[in-house]
Amino acid sequence: MNMRGHAMVELDHVGKDFGAEAAVDEVSLAVAPGEFVTLLGLSGCGKTTTLRCLAGLERPDAGEIRIDGEIVASAERGIHRNPEHRNIGMVFQSYALWPHMTVFDNVAYGLRVRRAPKSVVRRRTMRALELVGLAELSDRYA
């Protein structure tokens, strides 16, 4: 991972089946450090399943996933690193928020789990909230 916390992400012919149904079929892409990529498609086309495979929440049935050149999933080699060992975050499509936590605490959760210093948590969380126009709501509950 580079100095700014960005990693190269590569999916190489990734596939995931649910029974006889192919949810993801031979997806290949490379995302450079700091690059912003959007997956766009119809409901049910495999966007979320692809991201779940990347995050380690699903095991691909085919292909490889690499983060900064390190294989984190490979169906052929039997490799599957758990989500907590991939150093990536995922925001779920359904609002998976903790209602007992403030907006700030929900956003800061991943950094706190990684035991980031308090000053880093504060700075990065507020920056993220500013980017989406929610800084003024940081003390409200979700």
What would your notes on this structure say?
The structure is a single chain. 17% of the residues are buried. 24% of the residues lie in helices and 24% in strands. The protein is built from three helices and five strands. A hairpin with a 4-residue loop joins β4 and β5 (79-80). It has two domains: 9-85, P-loop containing nucleotide triphosphate hydrolases (Rossmann fold); 103-137, no CATH class.
User: How many β strands by DSSP?
Assistant: 5
The side-by-side strand order for the widest beta sheet comes to 2-1-3-4-5
CATH topology of the largest domain: Rossmann fold
Distance between the termini: 31 Å
Number of distinct helices: 3
Offer a few descriptive terms.
Rossmann fold; globular; 5-stranded antiparallel sheet; single chain; alpha+beta; 142 residues
In short, what is this structure?
This protein is α+β, with helices and mostly antiparallel strands and about 140 residues long. The chain contains three helices and five strands.
SSE blueprint and pairings:
Layout: E1 9-18, E2 21-31, H1 47-55, E3 62-67, E4 70-74, E5 79-80, H2 103-113, H3 118-131
Antiparallel strand pairs: 1-2, 1-3, 3-4, 4-5
Helix pairs in contact: 2-3
